[in-house]
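Lay summary. Proteins are chains of building blocks that fold into shapes, and those shapes determine what they do. In this project we predict the shape from the chain. Here is one chain we studied, written as its sequence of building blocks.
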Amino acid sequence: WLEGKVTGEYDETTENAVKGFQAKRELEQTGEVDAKTLEALNSMTRKPTDDELNNRITPGPTLLGDGSEPA
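And here is the predicted shape, written in a compact code that computers can read:
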């Protein structure tokens, strides 16, 4: 969903993205990452698991069972 190049600068594109984030969450649309905006961002963030940090795939439960019992 990102349009444009990532520049590392807080430019008009970044400001518009922040305003869009704020609008979607019914925050004042300042384009600045103020305390309320940062709180909203942080509330949506979680610490990655060790597997995610190390790019490991851990098998989960099967969708249809293990196949040992007849359906």
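What the prediction tells us: The CA atoms of residues 23 and 43 lie 16 Å apart.
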